[in-house]
Structure prediction request, 394 residues.
Amino acid sequence: MHPFRLGKRGSTDVGTKSSHTESTVADLLTKEAKANSDFSLSVVTTNIAVESETELRQFIAKKLGKGTVFSGTGNVAKLNFIITEATETPLDCYFCLLRQLPDDLEQLVGDADVFNGDDEKDSYYSQEYVVCFISKANGGLDLFRPDLDRYCEGLLPLLDSHLKEVSKRVTDYLARWHDDALQYICRCVARIGQSLQYLIYVALSDTQMQIQGADENFASDLKKFQECCSLSELMAASSSDTKSSQSDLESLSADMSKILSSNPIPDVILEVRENKCTFNKTDCTKFCSEFAQSLLNCEQSAVLLRQRVESYKLKVIQDMNSLKRLIQQAENDHYALYRAYIFLNENGNGAILLQHAKLEYQTDNTQDACKVLLVLEEYINETGGLNVVAVSVT
Prediction:
């Protein structure tokens, strides 16, 4: 059994029409902190004993009372009390605050006659819930926090806004949390087998993938695995300070446009037939092959597999930073340009690194860096390209 708990917090005033149009971030944080300091917490549904539930409720209330828990983003903390006889302490507890706004909120906000901002009756309230998932210590809940956040969001459409009853769908959904939010990685590795390297290449290169012939559950697992291995969020975070304005983007040079339009990555089709997965394009790098083999050789534990995934993603980010430094140096140093070529050619993952560099400079209007990328790519194409295996499966 994987313990879960769904609790309900007292309704929270989330503002008036004017607060949605004029509030600052500070105002919203102040309102959220106030809600965190004055609330009631009741249980909606759980699969743990009453005694343990009471302790867990007190634990969550203390966390919420500190005013540092905000809706939509989960947290992981240690529990030092027993939940079931089969568990030992300490335990890991993931908890996430969910906010369900009124179904007619858009209509209310758009109705000027309903809101004037001068009376409490003009306020509208949200229903708030706290979802808790509990696992043994070092159970990997922190590693899977993005998956658990998305899983919690999927619960909201199942909840009755007035909470007149807790449907079996809600209880069943909560009971599946460990299998749906963590175990997908084991199922993908086991079922795809040696073709896993191609799926990893698709994920790391942010290639669009069409899935044909898979049932709904396996298609969902594949999408989760692709998101798990993707670098898009990490790359966006690392380049957030270098984004240019729209006017800058409109002034991109012809050379830059040439770089961005060259060698586009086509969509990949994954066909599932009789439990066999076949890719129509099997592009792969040495790095992706090693990445996949490491997962296949690993003990089939969701936590261990996710740790390896994060380790390889970190290696890509480190290599990406090294490439960016070389590109920057190459703006004034021809030898650094040569070293950038050697680095890409010998790295084992040069094609993916170059692709991400091109995408990143799409939002960074640095003409010198654009010229470096153009020269690099032209020379790479003249010398036979990078070490990428591309085999079309018929």
In short: Residues 16-22, 111-122, 241-253 have pLDDT under 50 and may be disordered. DSSP finds 18 helices and ten strands in the chain. The longest helix spans residues 302-330. The CA atoms of residues 214 and 373 lie 39 Å apart.
